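Practice set, problem 2.
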Amino acid sequence: MFELLVLNGPNLNLLGSREPGVYGTMGLAGIEDKLQELALELDVHLQFFQSNSEGSLIDRLHAGIGTVAGAIFNPGAYTHTSIALRDAIAAVRYPVVEVHLSNVNAREEFRRTSMLAPVCAGTISGFGWRSYTLALRAVVGTIDDQTAHTHRDDQRLA
């Protein structure tokens, strides 16, 4: 069993009541419950963190170094503006999957550019709360692939 971080950025604490036509009616606690169910099936432990503050999100990413195997991150509007979060993701060296509830590519032009995507393992968007469960499966698969690759490399060196 390994630890994964689930990070949520600004305004995601208002899910369920904030623009339900765009973000759905499920609150953040409901999404966390869905993730916990899947985490049991996948034999992983999840740490949840939400902040409206860019610095707090950066601090939490840094705190994961050496303690988490990967992360799922919905950076909210920071997706399109934060070079600081981009640099933090690049620095942590564990896989981070960027996730969005809405299909950002079908929305306003400014939402179509992610400052973070180039340093993330991948991006999943447009599936509502299911984006999170897809991201959980993706990050676990990425970690499993890295572990298998490292194990093969260790065997070759032996």
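Problem 2, part (b): a different protein.
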Amino acid sequence: MALVVFLRGVNVGGHRTFRPTILARELGHLDAVNIGAAGTFVFRRPVTQAELRSELAARLPFETEIMICQGRDILRLVSENPFADEPLRPDIGHFVGVLSRRPRSAPATPICLPAGGEWLLKILGRDGRFVFGLYRRQMKAIGHLGTIDRLFGVPATSRSWSTITAIAKVLGRD
């Protein structure tokens, strides 16, 4: 089964920038597919996670957290659709946080941030290494995404639900 890679904190605000399309081309021997500009890739040829991590680290011009998931886990998450009961609204986005590993313990959900007043980020639940929730389309909401690390005790990176579904479409072509 394919592997999915999420790079943490790349191509954001001019920091740790690189060209994902070029990296995907360099890793063409692994049938690499770039999804967007945030450091999300699907690798459709067989490779171990250790080999893939090594190949990525050797080609990236900086160090970053590399989160690797099995493609089947993404397909399962999409098929279960944790947002089925959440209506689409122009002012609210759906996100998935990818944890670097399963946390030893996890807080009870839902969690609204900030704790008082109108929420900017709402964590609805967790499924293994995936945390899913909602955010208000406001700049202040982005700052609360970093709270996921502290709440779950492991590094995390976030992607929109549309990115996750785009990954599933690529995986469906296997």
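Answer key, part (b): Residues 121 and 135 are 4 Å apart (CA to CA). The longest strand covers residues 92-99.
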